Amino acid sequence: MLQEHIRNIAIIAHVDHGKTTLVDQMLKATHAFRENQQVQERVLDSNDQERERGITILAKNISIEYKGVKINVIDTPGHADFGGEVERVLKMADGAVLLVDAAEGPMPQTRFVLSHAIAANLRIMVCINKIDREGANPEKALNDCLDLMMDLGADDDQLEFAMEHVVYASAVNGYARLDPDDGNMDMYPLLDMIVDALPAPDVDVDGPLAMQCVTVDHSDYVGRIGIGRIYSGTIHAGDKILVVKNDGSRAMSQVKQLFTFDYLGRKECTQAEAGDIAAVVGLDSTDIGDVYTDPENPVELDPIEIDPPTLSVIFEPSTSPLVGREGDIVGGRQLKERLEQERENNVTMRIEETPDKTGVEVAGRGILHLSVLMEQMRREGFEFQVGRPKVLFKKDENGNKLEPIEEAVVECPNECSGKVIEVFGNAGGTMSNMSAGIQQTHLEFHIPTRGIMGLKTRIMNVTHGEAVFYHNFLEYGPFAGEIGGRQNGAMISMSTEKAVAYALGTLQERGQLFVSPGDGCYEGMLVGERSKPGDMVVNVARTKQLGNQRSSTADIAVQLTPPRTFTLEEALEYIMDDELVEVTPKSIRMRKRILSETERRKWRVRNGLVNK
Q1: 490 forms bridges with which residues in the sheet?
Q2: What is the DSSP string of 164-205?
Q3: How many CB atoms lie within 10 A of CB 410?
Q4: Is the sign of the CA dihedral 174, 176, 180, 184 positive or negative?
Q5: 433 with 455: CB under 8 angstroms?
Q6: How far apart are CA 63 and CA 61, in angstroms?
């Protein structure tokens, strides 16, 4: 039975392609965007860092009413590190809108989520956005989308549907057109195509209840909230239902409150029918994949498996000499409580206290996945330190060591392909595919996750910043042996003082600096990178000795090269096992785990790293 009054669609795109603006305009077109509503309430940007990074990190839902049809819009993350969200939320959709830039065409990260949409057999319509942009080429962008769908294995029906259902839009100007030059100035063609062309849910309203939880929200007042699609039957507030876990265990529970999505928020209701997306309150410790069904006629649904974490880092309270100067929350107890709260909200991470109780181990899908949590915490006023990300190993049935293997893809100029292959070879990667075009070469590699860390910087260096690089988890494979780390040594501050231009002027001849004059430094802090192997302890506060004689060069200013700055991800990839990243609301610093040079030497002697 088709639920003709409901459409569940997923939007596949980058924020850079105008996803947020497009949905804003769809809301305005249905008169739902109230005048007193603030821009900060836009549902597709849950915080500042999504807009800064140009990514969506959580799947979110909104609802639009148009011509008597309820359109549930599901936003999908585009980055592979958040693939756990993608794989699940696409189960709620019957169709998808592929949103691409008329000038740029489909981006590499779009490939990841589009492949999942095709595998889920969704009907995909194409929206070419920013047709008013300088350099826009809508026809080429459409052809690139169709070529990409063919590369990803779309069947003939999906390709034919995409070719016949194309909308050209300028979200910032508030119009969508069936032809780039037809002169229409509103969003109705897009809404009409969603209602008329994308399929309605094919469900059994009169059957026994079957609803599967695909996203878990959390409230400090009511606990966990299970969000998912109803596949059959009707769910009512107050119903006694059977909850079937992924492992097959069963328990009875009661629906205390029931919500459906209403524009940018949720509204409480007494019942929700098959085909709709609902949020259920009152089910203790509900989790991803739980099936809510009728106790008398239970329905079985395929379990949802969350991809296992591949990297872990240990969060510790900061022990820096500068602790407390920039952040308000520095204690270990507050850090532990914040991460325990994250464990309730974020089911894709595994968060456990370390056996020695000195820190908290957080495991996730990739460095970006972990760094987003760190970014959120530093904006909340936390100061903490984290170690180098460690790969999570497994063992097979024969006891052999297995490690996560990534599938990496690089698009680079033809003349740089040899250097890129060399970089991957040194990092333990093996090439699985190569195709050369007129100007660009497409390279695919299988590489251990250990080799990915720090690889992006090296690839950008050898391609002069012209490469496009992305990767996603492939499988667990045989341990690939030792992989070389950072080759160059570090410059380490010997004292806790502010950096001085005179000292930095002499040090920049020995390598690349990380600090500027006036920056606060402390003993054991990394202030630069040497141009050769081996660490070097330096004095960043050395000043010029002044005599009583005049000099013809005394007033010549020191010429300093701008220091190298690190993002959180770059710092995590850069450090070695004996180093830490200190994260504060204003700064990202790198330091040695043992700050004192004397203590570091003793440690190296005790561990047999130098001759006694």
Answers
A1: 529
A2: H-EEEEEGGGTEEESSTTS---SSHHHHHHHHHHSPPPB-BT
A3: 28
A4: negative
A5: no
A6: 7
Alpha carbons 391 and 243: distance in angstroms, whole number: 34
- State the first-to-last Cα distance of the chain, in angstroms, to the nearest integer: 80
CB atoms within 10 A of CB 456: 19
% residues pLDDT > 70 (the chain) = 89
Residues 6 or more apart in contact with residue 601 via CB below 8 angstroms: 610
Query: How big, in percent rounded to 5, are the helix, strand and coil portions of the chain?
Result: 25, 30, 40
Orientation of helix 455-462 relative to helix 417-426, angle to 10°: 150
The three-point CA angle 593-447-575 to 5° equals 15
Region 486-510: mean pLDDT is 88
Side chain identity at residue 211, one-letter code: M
The residue length of the chain stands at 612
What's the distance, CA 299 to chain centroid? 34
- Residue 127 three-state SS: strand
Q: What is the mean pLDDT of residues 346-361?
A: 83
Q: How crowded is residue 207: how many other Cβ atoms within 10 Å of its Cβ?
A: 16
| Each residue's pLDDT tens digit, 417-468 | 999 999 998 888 899 888 887 778 888 899 988 888 778 878 888 898 888 7
DSSP, res 306: P
> Model-level pTM?
0.72
